Amino acid sequence: MAKSSSATASASASASASKKRRSRGGTLTLDEVKTLGRELLSSRAHLNHAPALLALLNPSAPLDLALEALISLQSFFVPLIPSMPSASAAATSGDAGSDAELVFGAWLRQRFDELVAALVELSVSPHSDDAIRDVALDALMDFVKLGKDGKFQSPIYHKFLHAVVNASDSVDPLLELLGSKYFKYTDVCYFTYTSVDKIANSLGSKTTDSGKDALQNGSDGSKNNEKTIQPLMYDGCIDTFEHLRLLILLCLIMFFSLHNRGVIFIHNIYNLLVHVPVMDYQKESTFEMWSTVGLSAKGEKDSSKDSSSTTHIKKKIKLKFTKAWLSFLKLPLPLDVYKEVLASIHQNVIPSMSNPAILCDFLTRSYDIGGVISVMALSGLFILMTQHGLEYPKFYEKLYALLTPAVFMAKHRSVFLQLLDTCLKSSYLPAYLAAAFAKRLSRLALSVPPAGALIIIALIHNLLRRHPSINFLVHWEVDENASNAKEEASQPKKIGADPFNNDEADPAKSGAMRSSLWEIDTLRHHYSPAVSRFVASLEEDLTIRAKTTEMKITDFSSGSYATVFRDEVCLHYLQPIFTGFLDAYPLSTNVSWMDEVRRRIKQVPLAFYRTTPTSLFQGSDFPGWTFEDQSNSNVETIIEANETIEMVGASNSTPSKSSLCSCALGQNVSMGPDVVNVGLLCTFNSTIGRVAKVAIAAAVNDINNDPSILSGTKLVVQMQDTNYSGFIGIVQALKFMEKDTVAIIGPQSSVVAHVISHVANELQVPLMSFAATDPTLTSLQYPFFVRTIHSDQFQMASVADLVDYYGWRMVTAVYIDDDYGRNGISSLSDELAKRRLKILYKAAIRPGAKKSEMAAVLVKAAMMESRVFILHAHDDSGLAVFSLAYNLTMTSGGYVWIATDWLGAVLDSSPHLDSGLLSTMQGVLTLRQHTENTNRKKTLASRWSTLIKEDKGDGRILLNAYGFYAYDTVWMLAHALDAFFNSGGNISFSPDPRLHAIAGGALNFEALSVFDGGMLLLDRIRKVNFMGATGPVKLDSDGNLIHPAYDIINIIGSGLRTIGYWSNYSGLSIMSPETLYKKPPNGTIDNQKLRVVIWPGETITRPRGWVFPNNGNELRIGVPDRVSYRQFVSFDNQTGMVDGFCIDVFSAAMNLLPYPVTYRFIPFGNGRENPSYTQLINQIVTNEFDAVVGDVAIVTNRTKVVDFTQPYVGSGLVILTSVKKQSSNGWAFLQPFTIRMWSVTGVFFLIVGAVIWLLEHRINDDFRGPPVKQVITVFWFSFSTLFFAHREDTRSTLGRFVIIIWLFVVLIIQSSYTASLTSILTVQQLTSPIRGIDSLIASDEPIGFQVGSFAESYLVHELGVSPSRLRKLGSPDEYRAALELGPRKGGVVAIVDERPYVELFLTQNDKFAVVGPEFTKSGWGFAFPRDSPLAVDLSTAILTLSENGDLQRIHDKWLSTGPSSSTAADLQQDPDRLQVQSFSALFLICGVACIAALAIHACVLFRQYSRHVAAERAALPGGGDGAAISHSGRRSGLRAFLSFADRREPQLQRGPKDPAALGASGSSSGVSSFTSSNASLSSR
């Protein structure tokens, strides 16, 4: 208590001192307020400063004092909010007074509530300064956010919104501020709807129940009134009546006062709801919250489990949205608010409601009101009926009642007529109802303007097509003698009387079924030819119904009466004249304007008037036409006669009414005005501005002297200097609007263009800029902004292609920090990202910065590792940057500077380049907007010196690319204006109602008006297509000029050199873009070419583009703290030294770099087991390490997050297992061949023996004899060749040929067999149960792997090995023990590890070996962050180490091979037995030789046999009986041939001379074997 008392006493003393200061000085000074704030934040002793600071928070307080007090109080209360008691708890504790802390909490709560009230007042008060309002709102929303448990402080926010609604002055600025900052948060919108619901309900209860309470219950108000009125009551009738009159007057004043306040409150509620953005529930997937909890408010408990789900949030917001709007719609809405709600309810309210059918009462009540309110309510009611199942029985009766002449004057008539057509589409519509609407519309056609009659005819046309049952209304013939049994048709009809009652509200009782559409027939004789022709087309369409379609009501859009009249004049009166004129002077465009004149009359626009016009036409409707009395002048009147034009001279007498309209045709075929005003916004004192001013003046002069464009219309350009100021640009743009300017050329600054584009959008005036290249200036945000030069989006794409072409990975961007610079560099960042490049550092320079500031920015940029600088600036700041960079030696060798097209424009405009200026930018690359070498370009360039003299400007300025684009911009506008006038466009302006609402004062907003033809002119601008000075001038669908291209320039010595071009068509090229346009696009890497560049430092060697950053920081190199295999990497805890094979390789590679790099090794791991290499790599991703050096394998999942150098050692997974010696057995001699090899060899032995027997049987006695002997001979001969021991001699040539080839085959087989058998019997063999990775996976035995290795992940995820089979092994000793134990004793069957570890292990253990080949191929490398240039340079260094032998020497130092290292090569789990494939070629040759020999032998044998048969016939007695011989041959021909083939060769020679021999031969029976002979060959 003593401590508390002292604090209180100190606070009191401080408060008293503050009071003394205030009493002396009247008010606190700024220093005193700061002192109070610091003391308040320092301790509780100065708590009484809070009331003093709170007293400064009012709208009338000085701004600086209020801001300082607000900041101090906010800093004081923010930390206390979570622990501060609630208002109810503070009131209870404040009454107790027992506990000092409770009293202190209550006091804090009261002060906090006062602060909140002060902030609300500052935010809402119209007298508050904008700065204090902004800060107060931010502080208030911070208090809302920082509630207990992070919940939304809805009571504070409700107080704020309550004050906003009850504000008597406009709160639009506050709502705009609130909408831009906080309505993007979902919870703010949610609690806004909640508060609006409460406020609207309370306001509605006051307006409805206050009167009842006052009369029935005697409320407080009535008691007070009773006390007030009672003294006025006294006896006397006169005084009583006087007091009664005063009382009534007082009540009326109070009533109107309350009514006006209620209207203001409703307006504020509506404005608040409108400013809350409507959410798209179909697209929203995530919601941004202002508070940490979300939609839970203080004191609320959300028990739902899915309170944070998207669906739940959408449901809650929809519910609150629905409640808020329903509560608001229950209020007595003023008429203007009522109309605005109805106009937007179908778009902004119904789609977002949880149950839109709830609005049926409001909409039906509105629809029943009638008049304009019903028309506006129709849209919402139609949506409820068609989409939400609303049934409204009297809908068509109400719709029928709306068809009055007043509906054609309504603001939303277009939407109403479209809905009317849609509502009458249903084929289920009763005939009487369709007839009633048709009759009602036809009757209206008699009292509306001609254009209104057109749309009525279209509606009736659609009704007759959809409902054929009412076609009788068109052809109703009256027959007095006929009778009809139908309802109305049976009633008597009277000729000349229309039974239709137009005043009847019920369509069923209107009598339409007994009437006809005589009104439409009357329109045949309408004074407007358009209407009469339309009626005629209606009858024709009904006649050929099958060939016509319904008419689109949307085609009859709003227009003017003047357009109907003008089209009629153009179609009938001027057509012959213009036809002859076009024959003499053909237009340059492809389509004649007469095609547009001959449009179908059904597309003629409507004309609507709010009031009856005082005159038929206005002078502005028909430029060049006069409507006044032309008495005393010779008037040329156009008279139509037999579709020809006659020019009749009028007399001097008073003209008749029919001749009051005259037209001076002349040469003005497009009927344009005499003068068209165009504005120019430009900075004249700039490189671009000086050139553009002269070029635009030349273009205007050329256009006005060209009769083929804007004939009869003079183009006038008013020039204004913006001086790079957005504010001045707005003022000058507004001045243009006062002078009826149809378009503005410029501005050249992107910063100014952003500001003025809002003015252009509002007043619908096209803004055509030839120099604003900011890529964010798009037609989506600024529809009336037209860029007539290429966007920086393409320029940055060319810069990105340059960077990619030269192989640089990162750049430094130096730019001016304004819209032009920021957005350009942002586009560059996007383009670089597409090519996997990036901006390493963004060096932003403040606009208007001093040279010292620029130098500081450049010094900081020079400390970065990138040496490629992209300079995107203005001409003055850009040249200053180059001068400073030159002084900082940043333009010397090793640096690269690429400047955007601003530098090209500066250099092109300078007649004599300053040598001192050029010396600062030697070797710099810059861009220039590419322009084709057109005739207009040549002409303008040749006239330039003359134009400069005529302009009396700076004669030293030359023409640059921006001047050509400015010249084309004026021509582009002229072509668009010509098309605008030819298509019927008029130059007229209408007042902007929003500007009139704020009119007053000296700003003269009343003079500003909206260009009525702005949209049409904008459309014509976007469709312009001509050949200009720069080349083809045409805009694509995105509003960009076609064929974007740039020249790439290299600054060398005292001049410029073009090294190539860039185009969006084919990228970089040394050929001009217009040449490439004639070829197919080819943007491949091989096609990208540029000429040689002389870089800074006068070298043609491409700079590296980066160096190690000179910022004093060392590279943090992570190394694994290994426990095993420390020969690769080892860390000494005592000395802190790191060495090993990997470390030596890294150090040697770093020593080869051409620049110094400082680094330090940081161990990673606990020192007890090998670390996880995956976690080690992740340290680079998290920026803990700058690189990782060690035995890190290059695997796929790691290359996704880091970059690796060239592998410095090969690595792959192998299988290490235990082996045992294999001893040979008695059947070892069979092992050299496989079973298939043995079989094929044996078969070939038999085949070769059989072939030799066939070839030798007839001539060699060794192969003759009994069959058993011959079979034995075949087997013996074939197998004896294996040992070259055959005794039988071969006599035939074919036999010798076959045996030679076969002996060669046998020799090869025998040698191979001998070598293989020798190896098997003499070399020691090792065996293992595991034969490779497949057998290892197929088994169920445990597998070992090294701790930290990627082998574990590979086995599990890639090979599908169960994790339960894997065993962690941390050292070579554990390897050996696990393999020796084996799987049955708790060990492993094999170990999967990387080859370098296994090879090192085998140098000391000879009982183990590697089985199978490597089943992965990888290597070890050093890891660096993505796109690190150091990884590329180190890869080059590693290759150098490999080439000069240093890498091998380092390997031998640490990993020398021991005597047991060859054990792996000795293991033959499956010895390489000889396969058939190894001898397939030999067997094939041998087989082919055998087949060829047999084929030749068979041919010779058949030839001998045929001769033998002929000789036998000749030797028969008597010449032989041909019949007998033929019969004998047919009987035993085959037997004779076989017998012939079996004979020995000498028998054949004497057979024909010895009949006995023939008989013996014929009597012989039985053939011992099949044979063939080549006897003729052997005998010869």
UniProtKB/TrEMBL annotation:
<keyword id="KW-0406">Ion transport</keyword>
<dbReference type="Pfam" id="PF10613">
    <property type="entry name" value="Lig_chan-Glu_bd"/>
</dbReference>
<feature type="region of interest" description="Disordered">
    <location>
        <begin position="1544"/>
        <end position="1580"/>
    </location>
</feature>
<dbReference type="Pfam" id="PF03914">
    <property type="entry name" value="CBF"/>
</dbReference>
<feature type="domain" description="Ionotropic glutamate receptor C-terminal">
    <location>
        <begin position="1116"/>
        <end position="1457"/>
    </location>
</feature>
<keyword id="KW-0732">Signal</keyword>
<comment type="similarity">
    <text>Belongs to the CBF/MAK21 family.</text>
</comment>
<keyword id="KW-0675">Receptor</keyword>
<keyword id="KW-1133">Transmembrane helix</keyword>
<dbReference type="GO" id="GO:0030692">
    <property type="term" value="C:Noc4p-Nop14p complex"/>
</dbReference>
<keyword id="KW-0812">Transmembrane</keyword>
<feature type="transmembrane region" description="Helical">
    <location>
        <begin position="1479"/>
        <end position="1502"/>
    </location>
</feature>
<dbReference type="Pfam" id="PF01094">
    <property type="entry name" value="ANF_receptor"/>
</dbReference>
<keyword id="KW-0813">Transport</keyword>
<comment type="similarity">
    <text>Belongs to the glutamate-gated ion channel (TC 1.A.10.1) family.</text>
</comment>
<dbReference type="InterPro" id="IPR019594">
    <property type="entry name" value="Glu/Gly-bd"/>
</dbReference>
<dbReference type="InterPro" id="IPR001320">
    <property type="entry name" value="Iontro_rcpt_C"/>
</dbReference>
<keyword id="KW-1071">Ligand-gated ion channel</keyword>
<dbReference type="GO" id="GO:0032040">
    <property type="term" value="C:small-subunit processome"/>
</dbReference>
<dbReference type="InterPro" id="IPR027193">
    <property type="entry name" value="Noc4"/>
</dbReference>
<dbReference type="GO" id="GO:0042254">
    <property type="term" value="P:ribosome biogenesis"/>
</dbReference>
<feature type="transmembrane region" description="Helical">
    <location>
        <begin position="1297"/>
        <end position="1321"/>
    </location>
</feature>
<feature type="transmembrane region" description="Helical">
    <location>
        <begin position="1237"/>
        <end position="1255"/>
    </location>
</feature>
<dbReference type="GO" id="GO:0007165">
    <property type="term" value="P:signal transduction"/>
</dbReference>
<feature type="region of interest" description="Disordered">
    <location>
        <begin position="1"/>
        <end position="28"/>
    </location>
</feature>
<dbReference type="InterPro" id="IPR001828">
    <property type="entry name" value="ANF_lig-bd_rcpt"/>
</dbReference>
<dbReference type="InterPro" id="IPR028082">
    <property type="entry name" value="Peripla_BP_I"/>
</dbReference>
<dbReference type="Pfam" id="PF00060">
    <property type="entry name" value="Lig_chan"/>
</dbReference>
<keyword id="KW-0407">Ion channel</keyword>
<keyword id="KW-0325">Glycoprotein</keyword>
<dbReference type="InterPro" id="IPR044440">
    <property type="entry name" value="GABAb_receptor_plant_PBP1"/>
</dbReference>
<feature type="compositionally biased region" description="Basic and acidic residues">
    <location>
        <begin position="1544"/>
        <end position="1553"/>
    </location>
</feature>
<feature type="compositionally biased region" description="Low complexity">
    <location>
        <begin position="1556"/>
        <end position="1580"/>
    </location>
</feature>
<protein>
    <submittedName>
        <fullName>Glutamate receptor 3.1</fullName>
    </submittedName>
</protein>
<dbReference type="GO" id="GO:1901701">
    <property type="term" value="P:cellular response to oxygen-containing compound"/>
</dbReference>
<dbReference type="InterPro" id="IPR016024">
    <property type="entry name" value="ARM-type_fold"/>
</dbReference>
<dbReference type="GO" id="GO:0031965">
    <property type="term" value="C:nuclear membrane"/>
</dbReference>
<dbReference type="GO" id="GO:0009611">
    <property type="term" value="P:response to wounding"/>
</dbReference>
<feature type="compositionally biased region" description="Low complexity">
    <location>
        <begin position="1"/>
        <end position="17"/>
    </location>
</feature>
<dbReference type="GO" id="GO:0015276">
    <property type="term" value="F:ligand-gated monoatomic ion channel activity"/>
</dbReference>
<keyword id="KW-0472">Membrane</keyword>
<dbReference type="InterPro" id="IPR005612">
    <property type="entry name" value="CCAAT-binding_factor"/>
</dbReference>
